Structure to design on (310 residues):
DNA sequence: GCTTGACTTAAAGTTAACTTTAACTTGTAA
DNA sequence: TTACAAGTTAAAGTTAACTTTAAGTCAAGC
């Protein structure tokens, strides 16, 4: 059994954030001692891992609450829970792809400013055609200059 | 030359967002016609690409504004701009790593609920030891159950 | 000359996820 | 017994990045 302060240190989240999650119904199967003090256990730590993961995958607190509620309803919600993870898997894969495209542009800019710094001026590199860039850099440029993405499909 | 409505469609951002960016000083070298109508060009489209990229890398609007200001100050700010891209490169790489760990947990849960669905119950899979999982799944489990990360170093 | 569509502004409103505040309780140590 | 550390609450405050509103301008077509 852990107090809120212990959990806070273990998972590196502020105490008020843990209270907020608890109040919002994200922390199921938590108990209180006779003085009303929250007592957490290893299940809480695992829940917090899942909460962080679902947050990163794009879910809101109230949606995570809904998921936690499904968990406490047992086997009859397995299908819904599975569907949610399948959806969030697609979501996070899309997000990683977008970050990788952003990273490509950033890497290109790192090269661009390396060249500019060497030469003391952007002048030459600014008007450089992709065709005249080193292969590796041209690929970064092209990856970061694809079509603008379409509007994401609604959940 | 493009109107705000044309740019909005091209880059798939709402018109008020483009006005907001312009008002916040993110869109440098934009001009107005005699009636005060904004006229954008291809440089604007490229700026919007960089803005999106810097946003994804974790920068705030006001920090992007600062960067855009450096751009308009010419060659004497090359060093600062380079440093910023180097910093944001590290930031976005860290973010991708964290998303990949979250993805590992999601993939593990997809497998978990596949098994549970097949068996009509979580009962067995819930108390499964990582040692008894398929190799591929155990690796996902381990990747998603590393130590909690330390507090990120301040900018 | 009137309507329409696309633009303009300043200012107020929205939202989610915390974060802070102020007042209070409880258990241990000096 | 007094102080301190660590817990508690409800309620108000914060923040960033938009988004909406309300009122107005302007050019083109009927």
């Amino acid at each position: 059994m852990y107090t809120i302060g212990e959990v806070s240190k273990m998972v590196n989240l502020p105490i008020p954030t843990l209270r907020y999650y608890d109040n919002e119904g994200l922390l199921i199967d938590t108990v209180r001692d006779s003085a009303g003090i929250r007592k957490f256990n290893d299940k809480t730590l695992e829940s917090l891992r899942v909460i962080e993961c679902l947050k990163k995958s794009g879910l809101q607190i109230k949606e995570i609450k809904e998921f936690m509620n499904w968990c406490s309803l047992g086997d009859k919600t397995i299908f819904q829970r599975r569907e949610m993870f399948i959806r969030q898997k697609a979501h996070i894969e899309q997000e990683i792809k977008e970050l990788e495209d952003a990273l490509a542009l950033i890497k290109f800019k790192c090269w661009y400013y390396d060249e500019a710094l060497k030469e003391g001026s952007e002048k030459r590199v600014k008007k450089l055609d992709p065709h005249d860039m080193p292969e590796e850099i041209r690929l970064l440029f092209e990856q970061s200059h694809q079509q603008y993405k379409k509007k994401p499909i609604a959940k």
Remarks:
- Residues 101 and 147 of chain B are 11 Å apart (CA to CA).
- Chain B has two domains: 4-56, 78-148.
- Residues 3-5, 15, 19, 35-38 of chain B lie near DNA strand C (CB under 10 Å from a C1').
